[in-house]
Amino acid sequence: MASTLLRGKTALVTGSTSGIGLGMARALAAEGANIVFNGFGDAAEIAQLQAATAREFGVQTAYHNADMSKAGEIEALFAFAADKFGGIDVLVNNAGIQHVANVEDFPVEKWDSIIAINLTSAFHTSRLALPHMRAQDWGRIINLASAHGLVGSAGKSAYVAAKHGLVGLTKVTALETAQTGVTANAICPGFVLTPLVQKQVDARAVKDGLSNDEAKRALLADKQPSGEFVTPEELGALAVFLCSDAAKQVRGVAWNMDGGWVAQ
């Protein structure tokens, strides 16, 4: 029997055409939520993804290609969602990009893009989602931060700054909604084998003359004591818990799911 935890509610997951975002969208759809997909990719493949999700879980789906670095496009995304579904009940801020370089070598335009997409977009989506959530006295804001929202790594200044900022934004949003039915929390994954992380694996394989599997093991050995990647499905299950009544007093948490990364 299909779950009805989120039946009749609508979830927007940014950056949901692949990777963690897609895992989140599927987990929420499995609980009955209508899904607004967002992200880049081949139009035919995205249409197929929408149709498959709707068919598999018996929900409605929509797609908007808003560039999450642009406030005007984010506003258009929310107008689209309001017109189609009446508003956003569950907001998952997942869109993100990465670049690795030392501070003195970091391209200014890369810094600006990472801060815009990984942090500022979550401010815009939150400010646009909250009026509807407050009006119905129920809502869930889930920000995909990172283990890098809790600790640093050399070469990742913009990403670490953005993810630390996202944890801070989460705490403030949680405090401002503390006496309402709206909650805000952050999930802080360790390494997940997304296309973003696969690029790091590929670069390491080339640099160190390793096979792909050896490069994966070496990457995990640096940071993640479990030696295993976190999966999008595991993160999706945590998001579902945060949407449940059992989590209504979980507010402002930065919940790491990282194979022991920040326990060290």
Question: Would you kindly provide a written description of the structure presented here, covering whatever features stand out?
Answer:
InterPro entries: 3-OHbutyrate_DH (IPR011294), NAD(P)-bd_dom_sf (IPR036291), Sc_DH/Rdtase_CS (IPR020904), SDR (IPR050259), SDR_fam (IPR002347). It is an enzyme of class 1 (oxidoreductase). GO terms for molecular function: 3-hydroxybutyrate dehydrogenase activity. It holds the Pfam family adh_short. Keywords: Oxidoreductase. This protein is an alpha/beta fold and 264 residues long. The chain folds into two domains: 10-190 and 230-256, NAD(P)-binding Rossmann-like Domain (Rossmann fold), CATH 3.40.50; 191-229, no CATH class. The protein contains eight helices and seven strands, in the order βαβαβαβαβαβαααβ. Strands 3-2-1-4-5-6-7 form a seven-stranded parallel β-sheet, sandwiched between helices. α4 (108-136) links the parallel β4 and β5. α1 packs across α8 (232-243) and α4 packs parallel to α5. It starts with 9 loop residues before the first strand and ends in a 7-residue tail after the last strand.
